Amino acid sequence: MTTTSGTPTTPGDTAATATDRQIAAAEAHSAHNYHPLPVVVATAEGAWMTDVEGRRYLDMLAGYSALNFGHGNPRLIAAAKAQLDRVTLTSRAFHHDRFAAFCAELAELCGMETVLPMNTGAEAVETAIKTARKWGYRVKGVPDGRARIVVAADNFHGRTTTIVSFSTDPEARADFGPYTPGFTIVPYGDLAAVEAAVDDDTVAVLLEPIQGEAGVLVPPPGYLAGVRRLTTERNVLFMADEIQSGLGRTGRTFACEHEDVVPDVYVLGKALGGGVVPVSAVVSSHDVLGVFKPGEHGSTFGGNPLACAVGLEVIAMLRTGEYQERAAELGTHLHRGLAALTGSGVTEVRGRGLWAGVDIDPALGTGREVSERLLARGVLVKDTHGSTIRLAPPLVITKEDLDWSLDQLHSALPR
Ligand SMILES: *Cc1c(COP(=O)(O)O)cnc(C)c1O
């Protein structure tokens, strides 16, 4: 027997809750490539989600920053609904009437010239890698097959075979070889290490301006500016993966702006799709993205009309600066609140804007335990790397809700 929502039910299991049944069915019929918290979300609005039992939770993860504008943002939903009634997909075999505006306005937001739209973040990173290699051979003059890209240890750039080839996380990488060559890994935040790694075959340095998955690691002051200087001097592309750090999260449109740095290439995703559809892009100059000729790269869904319509609304919302300002103001408030927790179960807090990595004292407990206690208190967060809790609420969260979440965190800390 199956209910309308697809939940299998068997006579006699009336004691099982809807949550238990949904989780058991998911366990039975899905690959176990995630370890979700035991909550089954049914609806969401703004910073709040409601589960299948009718319980409400404050979303302090925001889809890893894909939901910067909150759940069901009225402007984004309206843009999507309007486009659903017009045309949703053409493929790039034909032009469509949302494409030019999306590319022009995204380029303008980035202070760049040219946009190459894709869907997921990993695809945009792959696109950036292909861009850098082709640019290296065609423009810089690197001998064929020799191009190298410098990346940072503890990076997270996605899950494709090439991207996990330069991951240093054994969980992400083990058993997925043979690995793609051509990457040099250096410690994050160490400018001298980047300098030592760059040689005549180096085509790009690819970095997260703040490392998200690694635990919201902010590099030392001067690092990004130093990488910018070095890459300019050595004719190497500086590619900033702003998929998680960008589009308002840190209090600026891009995290690179905190050091007045403009990279050669922005890699964007997550919030660009407004939490509605996957939208990613590589944004750069005509010189760099001009290396692609017809047939050399693409994606059936990349730059589709629905994606462009939602992306255009995201860009319009970012253009006002109000979300960035909100992230900066509430971020100062958040970090002040978190600093007060240091010492009582928390060993360190890092971050910028509405984004924080909170290290739980490993002698007292794990990140997972704190996440589960917060779940019971109506706050949704997710641990990363064992002992870190990442906080990244939707930028539309109210100050009152943020304060309430800090109270809950205080109560949930191990002692
Ligand atoms: C999430 C993320 C990616 C990958 O994006 P997907 O859409 O999950 O493929 C790449 N880089 C960074 C910095 C990310 O946070």
Description of the molecule:
This protein has a seven-stranded mixed sheet, sandwiched between helices. Strands 1-2-3-13 form a four-stranded mixed sheet. Residues 1-9 have low confidence and may be disordered. The chain contains 14 helices and 15 strands. The protein has helices spanning 18-29, 62-65, 74-84, 99-110, 121-140, 161-165, 170-173, 191-197, 223-233, 286-289, 305-319, 322-339, 367-376, 399-412, and strands spanning 41-45, 48-51, 56-59, 114-118, 148-152, 183-186, 202-207, 237-241, 265-268, 280-284, 346-351, 356-360, 379-380, 382-384, 388-391. The longest helix has 20 residues, at 121-140. It is globular and about 65 Å long. Helix 4 packs parallel to helix 11 (305-319) and helix 12 (322-339) packs parallel to helix 14 (399-412). The protein folds into two domains: 14-66 and 322-412, Alpha-Beta Complex (Aspartate Aminotransferase, domain 1), CATH 3.90.1150.10; 74-319, Aspartate Aminotransferase, domain 2. With 415 residues, it is an alpha/beta fold. A hairpin with a 2-residue loop joins strand 1 and strand 2 (48-51). The chain binds pyridoxal-5'-phosphate. Pyridoxal-5'-phosphate binds at residues 64, 120-122, 125, 156-158, 208, 212, 241, 243-244, 269-270.
Relevant terms:
single chain, disordered N terminus, seven-stranded mixed β-sheet, globular, Aspartate Aminotransferase, domain 2, alpha/beta, 415 residues, binds pyridoxal-5'-phosphate
